[in-house]
Amino acid sequence: MIAYILRRLFALAATLAGAALVIFLMLEILPGDPAAVTLGLNAAPEALAALRAEMGLDQPAPMRFLSWVGGLLTGDLGLSYTYRVPVAQLIGERMAVTLPLAFMAIALATLIGVPLGILAASRHGRPEDAAVMVFAQLGLAVPNFWFGLLLVLAFAIGLGWLPAGGFPGWHAGFAPALKSLLMPAFALALPQAAILARVTRSAMLDTLQEDFVRTARAKGLGEQVTMLRHALRNALIPVVTIMGLQFSVLIAGAIIIENVFALPGLGRLVFQSIAQHDLIVVKDLVMLFAALAIIVNFAVELLYGLIDPRLREAS
Fold first, then answer.
1. Which one-letter DSSP state was computed for residue 86?
2. 206-241 pLDDT, tens per residue?
3. Of the candidates 156, 147, 165, 157, the residue with the CA atom closest to the CA atom of residue 268
4. What are the distances in angstroms from CA 158 to CA 6, 150, 168, 201?
5. What's the Cα-to-Cα distance from 15 to each of 24, 34, 57, 133, 287, rounded to whole Å?
6. Which pTM does this prediction carry?
């Protein structure tokens, strides 16, 4: 297992290095001058040159890349061109909203999607199976921002149970903060729950055809024990894969939902930074999203090894 983890760690480091290089090169070729955007089109050449020097834009690209990577490794993410505060501070404040939102969404998607997939597989070809598949189709077809607006109409405007938008901050108390994230989390969770239900159903149906499941039933084990202890564990690899991908999608793809509900999260920050051409914030945020996706994928691969020891020997 140690050799397996070391191989995965080497692949993780190489992938992070490659992602940093690609992100830097992609942002380097974007049109526009961040200094000119900050000062305006009528800025004096002397002021423009001074700001470019302050931003490090007067240095060659390789030096800027090495300086940026060095800052990432030491935790110095630079100073935002627009907000004039450390980028690490900006990201830390916004992550306190986005991370809990993503965890709530993936938890809701798992609690809804996996049991529905197991139910559909256990009742294959029956009305319960058809109902789950209808739910899955609707979940994939309905845009999450539109579902979020329906939730606002129903639970904020109609019933008055939840706030329509905004985030009071965790200092206002756990309950108010949780209430403000509940509807956005449900809006994000709907399509992910639909995907999980379909994947779980498909994986379970394949596993139920295996010889070891027939052997378990022949030994007289109950249907519930057979489904949960034998079939589900062997169907977990595709389910875990989808969950890992979903978490990355929820972190990076919450831009629309955070704008619909006026949440001060990472998604809203990256949207504002792109609009303001604040490249240092954009670079750091895109690298953060890429790193989270790579690290989650690394964790999923480790789970593969725990679920199925044969994968450790094969890799």
1. B
2. 777 776 666 766 766 666 666 666 666 677 777 777
3. 165
4. 54, 10, 21, 35
5. 14, 28, 27, 37, 12
6. 0.74
